[in-house]
Amino acid sequence: MSHTDRSSANSWLMLLLAGAFEVGYALSVGGSHGFTRLSWSLVAVVFFLLTLWALSVALRTIDVGIGYAVWAGIGSAGAALLSPVFFDEVLTPTQAVWLGVIIVGVVWLKLADRPQNTQEPVDRPQGAEGIDPRPQEAQGAKY
């Protein structure tokens, strides 16, 4: 595994961690009842700081648009799936289907982030790197 591959894998793991912190933040904000319960409010602040830190570390190497979408998807799907466990909420089958769509989208975004084949197309003979393939007239040569 090259250094770049390891760095990318670490960034994606950090993004997953940021998503987990985002789930904790969302659930603790719900438990704080508008920041009127001190213990839940303090937990929310800690999760908020942790999720921002982990997201910022992940976005060093992951594109912002992709990273943010994955982070938000993990946070929203995770909070929706866990809120019935922690609070008196209901998850309907229709909601579960659409959360599944979000999860599939997040996985697809990860798969789409794989680096493409970075080999340059061969359009010149080998050893001709310094030779300009344009005709001499186009190069500005004078006779």
Describe it.
- With 143 residues, the chain is mainly alpha-helical.
- Helices cover 68% and strands 0% of the residues.
- The mean pLDDT is 84.
Structure, briefly:
By secondary structure, this protein is mainly alpha-helical.
Q: Sheet with the most strands?
A: none
Q: What oligomeric state best describes the polypeptide chains here?
A: single chain
Mean pLDDT: 84
Broad shape:
flat
Q: What Rg is obtained from the alpha carbons, in whole angstroms?
A: 24 Å
Helix content: 55-70%
Q: Provide the structure class.
A: mainly alpha
How far is it from the N-terminal to the C-terminal residue, by CA? Answer: 54 Å
Q: Keywords, please?
A:
143 residues; mainly alpha; single chain; 5 helices
Write the layout of secondary structure elements.
Elements lengths: L2 H29 L6 H21 L5 H23 L6 H20 L23 H4 L4
